[in-house]
């Protein structure tokens, strides 16, 4: 059980045996959804691989009780995810890969802002989920670092260290939805992460047009006035700071030629 989460602005604990969360007296959240290996096989390089039966736990709409009305008004939602340690055959523990469904209130596929709490993460993202994936990035991040996925991009979150669980929080649109069909039709995203001697290497998915993968480290996103403080604490400081998540249409120029 990890109680470090209060350092990131919320009084909650992360559990790994079994996977899940518990909340402090002033925090509310749902029972976590457990993603099992059988549910994500269609997005893996080797659908028949062995791995933990419970791959990750996800809780969407975690908040302090006194913040809930403000979050609803701003169409914002905070999610927390924790992964099992280990591997999925030759692949690391990872999410399935998806694109966000278009939100009715904005007309956009919303962005998402991640903050790593525990472990080592790679946020993989590609510009499109068509045969030509466009620009592809692998953003390597550790505890306290933030990674922004822009609107409409396909993405997956990867645990880069099989020896420890990965835990992260994220700001999302309240009308969030995950679309998997295009990714599953290509049997995954454009690049497969593979573990070799506990290090990540990359293999191109031949169902996409060949391209280049850029490995980068997180930046500050000063164009959105983000600071180094925990992202939930930044909301408490300035509730309007994350409107670019729920209303990406209001800052459309910032997404042109976006670089993670």
From TrEMBL:
Pathway: Carbohydrate degradation; glycolysis; D-glyceraldehyde 3-phosphate and glycerone phosphate from D-glucose: step 2/4. It is an enzyme of class 5 (isomerase). The keyword Isomerase applies. GO terms for cellular component: cytoplasm. Keywords: Gluconeogenesis, Glycolysis, Isomerase. SUPFAM superfamilies: RmlC-like cupins. Its EC number is 5.3.1.9. Residues 53-205 form the Glucose-6-phosphate isomerase prokaryote domain. GO terms for molecular function: glucose-6-phosphate isomerase activity. GO terms for biological process: gluconeogenesis; glycolytic process. Gene3D superfamilies: Jelly Rolls. Pfam families: GPI. It catalyses: alpha-D-glucose 6-phosphate = beta-D-fructose 6-phosphate. Belongs to the archaeal-type GPI family. This is glucose-6-phosphate isomerase.
């Amino acid at each position: 059980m990890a109680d470090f989460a209060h350092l990131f602005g919320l009084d909650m604990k992360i559990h790994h045996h079994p996977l899940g969360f518990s909340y402090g007296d002033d925090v509310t959240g749902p029972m976590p959804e457990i993603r099992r290996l059988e549910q994500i096989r269609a997005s893996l390089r080797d659908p028949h691989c062995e791995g933990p039966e419970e791959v990750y736990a996800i809780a969407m709409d975690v908040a302090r009780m006194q913040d809930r009305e403000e979050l609803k008004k701003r169409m914002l939602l905070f999610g927390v995810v924790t992964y099992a340690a280990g591997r999925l055959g030759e692949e690391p523990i990872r999410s399935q890969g998806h694109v966000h469904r278009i939100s009715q209130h904005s007309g956009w596929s919303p962005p998402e802002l991640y903050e790593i709490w525990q472990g080592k993460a790679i946020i993989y993202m590609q510009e499109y989920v068509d045969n030509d994936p466009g620009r592809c990035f692998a953003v390597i991040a550790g505890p306290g670092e933030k990674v922004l996925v822009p609107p409409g991009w396909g993405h997956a979150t990867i645990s880069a260290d099989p020896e420890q669980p990965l835990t992260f929080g994220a700001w999302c649109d309240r009308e969030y939805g995950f679309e998997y069909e295009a990714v599953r039709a290509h049997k995954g995203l454009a690049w497969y992460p593979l573990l070799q001697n506990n290090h990540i290497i990359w293999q191109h998915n031949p169902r996409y047009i060949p391209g280049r993968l850029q490995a980068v480290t997180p930046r500050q996103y000063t164009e959105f006035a983000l600071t180094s403080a925990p992202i939930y604490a930044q909301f408490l400081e300035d509730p309007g700071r994350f409107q670019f998540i729920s209303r990406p249409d209001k800052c459309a120029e910032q997404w042109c030629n976006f670089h993670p």
